[in-house]
Structures are given as C-alpha cells and as structure tokens.
Amino acid sequence: MNKKQLIECVPNFSEGNDMGIIKQITDVIEAVDGVKLLDVDPGKATNRTVVTFVGEPEPVIEAAFQAIKKASELIDMSKHTGEHPRMGATDVCPLVPVSNISMEEVAKYAHKLGERAGSELDIPFYMYESAATKKDRMNLATVRAGEYEGLAKKLSLPSWKPDYGPARFNPRAGATAIGARDFLVAYNVNLNTTSVRRANSVAFDVREKGRVKRKGDPINGPIVKDKKGNPLRTKGACKSVKAIGWFIEEYGVAQISMNLTNISISPLHQVFEACDKSATKRGMRVTGSELVGLVPLKVLLDAGKHFLQKQNRSIGVSESEIIKIAVKSLGLDELGPFDPSKKIIEYQLRDAGFAPLLAMNLQTFADETASDSPAPGGGSISAYVGALGISLGTMVANLSANKKSWDSKVALYSEWAVKGQNLKDNLLQLVDEDTHSFNNIIKAIRLPKSNDAEKATRTKAIQDATKYATEVPLKVMEVTDATFEILKKMAQIGNPNSASDAGVGALCARAAIHGAYLNVKINAKDISDEKFVNSILKKADKLAKQADKKEAEILKMVNKLIQ
After folding, report:
1. What is the rounded CA–CA span in Å between residue 16 and residue 43?
2. Which one of 18, 40, 339, 424 has the minimum C-beta count within 10 Å?
C-alpha cells in the first residue's frame, strides 16, 4: 500500500518590505486545496521573502504556479534593490522531498512546473540542482550569475537559452530558477562587528570555495596562479557551505550569510563552531545566529546532542530539552524569540494535521478516544502505552546518568537513553499511523462500485488497506518487544531508587504487545490472502508469548529490589 507522498516548496520572492504584496502571493498558495502554508519569512535588508509550503505533489505544483504568476504581476524587478543575489520576481522555486518520494520523482514534478509556467507565462525558466538539464546549470550561483542586471545579455547567448519559456528579457519579472534539491539550510551567524570586510574574511575561511591564494599579504598581495593563469584557491573549512559577509542595518551587526547544502557533510553546529574559531582568530566574537525559513528537526537535535556531550551530559534526554540546549548554544534567540513549533518542519507538519494525534494534549487525546468516533482505537492506544513504557525506562537511564557519584558512567547510560528515545519516537509515530491505516480502509470502502471494473478496484483497495492496517499493529509489537532489553537493563544497573519505574515500563510493554495483537487478529480475519494471514499471525503469536516471559523476568528482578 502506498503511503502519502509529501513535498515541500520553498519559493523566494524579491519583496521583503511590502507585506501587502506578500500576502496576495501567499493567499493564492493557501487557496489551493491540499496545500499547507508553513512559514513566511521576510527580510527588509535583503528585500526578499522565503515562503514554505507543503503537500502532495500535484497540489504543490498548482500552488507554485499560481504563486509565480501572482509574483510576476505584483513585483517589478526594474525597481528592485536588496542585499541578496536575485534575478527574478520569483527568484528561485525549489521542490524538496519530504516523505515517501524520491529525488528523481521530485525532479519530474519540477519539470512539470517549469513546462507549464514556461508555456503560460512570459518568463524564462532555468532548471537547477537535481532538475538541471546540463551539468553547468546544477549550481544555483552559476545559473544566477550576473543577476537581474546581466540577464538581458545572458538571454542573448545561445548557451544560456532557458529550459522553458522565452529566450527574451522580461524587465518586470526577470527570470526564475526551478529546482529539485535536498533540504537547504539558510543560516546566518552574527558577529560583534559592523565591518563587512571582516565578516567576509570569516566567510572565506568557512565556505567550501575558500579564498584566492595571495603572496605575502593575504588581502592585498598578488594573486597566485597556476601554469594556465588561473587563480589558485585555499579551500575553506566546511564542505557544502556557501557563504558571504554582509551588514544588516535593522540589527546593526555584520553577519556571515550561509547556505548549507548538505547538512550530513557539514552539520549546523560544525559550521557555527568553524565561524566562531575564525572570528576569534581575527579578533571578533560570534554573538549568536539566525535560521531563515524552516529547518529539519535532525539539524537541531544533532546540534543539541553535540553541545550536551561537550558538557558531559546524557544525550538521551527529551527532544524538547535537546532543542533548548541547541537554541541557547547557537544563540538562535539573540535577534528575536525562537519558536521551535514554527521553525522545525516536522513540528509544522504535525501541527498542520499530518500527525493529528501527536499534536493533541493529554486531555484532548483522551476525549477523542472516548468519543463516538472509531479512531483512535485500540491500535493507537497500544502504541501509546508502549511509548509510555519505554519512556519510563529512558527516564531511569537519564536519572542514572545524572546521579552525582556516577559521572564516569554518563556515556553508558546516555547510550541506553538514546536507544529508548528512538524506540519511543517510533511508537509515537505508530499512534497516528494506526489511525491513518484505519481511515484508509474507510476510504476504500467508500469507493464507487457501480460496475464490475469499479467493484474489482474497490475490492483490491480494501484488501490492500486491510493488509496495511494489520502490518501496523504488528510493527507496534515488534518495536515494543525491543523495549524490554532497555527496561531489563535499567532494572539491573539503573538507579535502584527508580527500579519500580522499570517494572511499570515492563507492564506497559506487555499490555501494548497484547493490545496490538488483538488488532492484528481482528484485521487479519477480513483478509482473503491466507499465506499473508498465516505469516503475520505466526509472527504476532510468537511476540505475544515472548512478552509474557520478558515481563515476568523483569518484574521478578524489580520485586527483589523493592522488597
């Protein structure tokens, strides 16, 4: 059964001061059914607004087209000025895979958008990154070279014929780059200086491109060239990072403005510390930093864990605590409040209804369960009970890591706590997934059945949905089974004052497994594929029997400790 495909679109519009214009653009985005506007981030000095919205591919493409069209009607590039490089009213329009979709598929949707916009709007379009049609157009900086002012000349060159749209200069709308790319993190680091030159010196130290080599004086000395007369360069400290220095008048400070194009190669915290090292060497100090637009949750979790480890603390603490440490360590709240619910894409998706149960508080969740709606039901509750059980085991690990006389054991307990947090997160995701799988059965049942073809399609859809609705509680059983190892270990080596918590966790784990088992069985009875049913019931039965033994073993250990 196919899961819902989601893509993110992050168009950058060349207007950051007139919010009336931006509001008209975002209105046409929000008017498209199936699209959720997540973030609008205007910049006065850059005179540029970064907009983020998400949805299934077709609605996103429609919303992007309408936004590009509206921007071309409202923004006059012949009058535009700003600190940021730009070439069009809609300067760039990247599409980003979010879930259940490959980069290759996203690139096809990017071309679908470019083809439609190029045929209906009088604007040149260039494809970049994973949607590029030529190797020399993959890099956005290359595509945008010369900016708006050099666009007329560029369009006259055969080598720069647009991928879509006319090869002629549109003085009002300019040109637009449409791409397919991974998450790009737009990140600015603040310095205690007003000097753009000094900010650039840090940017050149950090960015992958580095700086041109010079003899003697690193700033004014003669450029060192190779045998062919090309300037030689000294590489910067961070790969996949583009950076320049600029002065932001509204803040009264110079910043290093960066794009992190591969956060796996150069994580945010690593780039921050490279900036800090360079600034310190040059007699300056990093005072904080700023995220522009949304950021994947992993970016801040990795940063928070990095700084916790430097403090010799457990990294298996709660997600909210890790993020708090990241925000304070990176100084993300220096220029204004930092709200994780508005800046982290996964939280925006959750609050936008893509994970509705996880977005509820305890009271609302209980009320929804107790209502006359069949979902959430036993499957979601089983997943949640399992999450609560391992949460207790993780708590014991973190309490043990913080025990005053056990400083030498922090790494050990931290490792167990991290495992517990991962299992807890998996189970929480399954809370919503179980309800989602049930809703898919209802959708399949409601499909038309007026003729034989429709009846066959409906029958297959019901069977596929029911199979998936059986696989989800089995997954709950499998994940919960893995929690017993941690609960047992905490009963053995954890803080003895918390032994009862490990025991309660084991009780929850067994209840979660048996509850999920009931859902496996009730869904399996409606599946006609006997081979599938026999296989899944065999696995579930084994897990249920194992749970009884594992719970009993842990409770025996706990009772010895608390008697």
Report:
1. 5
2. 339
Of the residues 41, 84, 306, 436, only one is catalytic, namely 84
State the Cα–Cα distance between residues 41 and 185, nearest whole angstrom.
13
The answer as to whether 350 is a domain residue is: no
Known catalytic membership, residue 84: yes
CA–CA gap between residue 530 and residue 187 (Å, rounded): 54
Are residues 242 and 161 part of one domain? no
Do 161 and 229 lie in one domain? The reply is: no
Mean pLDDT in residue range 356-377? 87
Flag whether pLDDT at 524 surpasses 80: yes
Same domain, 322 and 441: no
Active site residue 91: no
Does 360 share its domain with 413?
yes
Report pLDDT for 541. Answer: 97
Question: Which residue range(s) make up the domain with 546?
Answer: 356-562
Report pLDDT for 218.
67
- Taking the whole predicted model, whether its pTM rises above 0.85 is answered as no
Q: Say whether both 340 and 408 belong to one domain.
A: no
**Mean pLDDT within 109-122:** 97
237 and 363 in a common domain: no
Question: To the nearest 10°, the Cα dihedral for 72, 73, 76, 78?
Answer: 70
| Same-domain status, 339 and 373 | no
Per annotation, catalytic residue among 434, 436, 481, 501: 434
